[in-house]
Amino acid sequence: ERVLRMKRRFGVLASEEEARPVPVEEADSAAIEAFASRTSQQVAERSLTLVRDEIGLLPSKPESVRKVLIVGITPSNADYEELSTLGEAFERRGIEAETIRGVWYEDLIRREPEFDLIVYAPILRHHHPMGPLAFSADEASACWSALTAGRSKSIVVSFGSPYVIADYFDMAPLAVNAYSNVPSSHEAFVR
User: Fold this and answer.
1) Alpha carbon of 155 to those of 53, 85, 173, 189: distances in Å?
2) In whole angstroms, what is the distance from residue 108 CA to residue 88 CA?
3) Residue 63 carries which DSSP code?
């Protein structure tokens, strides 16, 4: 309650958006899940950050994108698997999506003409237990290969550390930070 009072005092919470405490003993699990889902979606949409769009690709017209290639760049199998909800978010909008892990220069050159949009999704979680603090091996090669073809139809979106763009994709003409590799962030990005 003290935190809510402070947020009200500084205008952080608008009255219609204010979260109301839900007593667990009175609420059913469906109501709690619905509340958590709405809150997660609102946080994801409000925290999405356009770092730069030097080529004017955003906002894209829905009819201009029919097929998207999602290139997951991460050392974590779990993070890569979670990217499936990014593809599902595109598919709910009628856009065919293919997700691959990493990309090699030769493959990108060969496959780039098939797609209307290429989304590079680097995921690094600093301080993730036992995880690397930098890309190496296959992930570093994928970062190097990225943007060698289809640059004018490519977006880099970090679903983890916001520093990945500066560290690995400083030359990307279009970059977005989504901060978290969860379905609500995927949905916010596609929207």
Assistant:
1) 9, 17, 8, 11
2) 22
3) G
Structure tokens belonging to residue 113: 């003409």
> Residues 8-42: pLDDT tens digits?
776 666 555 555 665 555 557 777 788 888 888 89
Q: Kindly report the pTM of this predicted structure.
A: 0.81
Q: Is the dihedral of CA 185, 186, 189, 191 positive or negative?
A: negative
User: Quick count: other Cβ atoms within 10 Å of Cβ 9?
Assistant: 9
Radius of gyration of the chain from its Cα atoms, rounded to whole angstroms: 19
Reduce the DSSP state of residue 95 to 3 states and report it: coil
At 67 the three-state DSSP class reads: strand
Q: Assess whether the previous peptide bond of 59 is cis (omega < 30° from 0).
A: yes
Phi, psi torsion values for 56, nearest 5 degrees: 65, 35
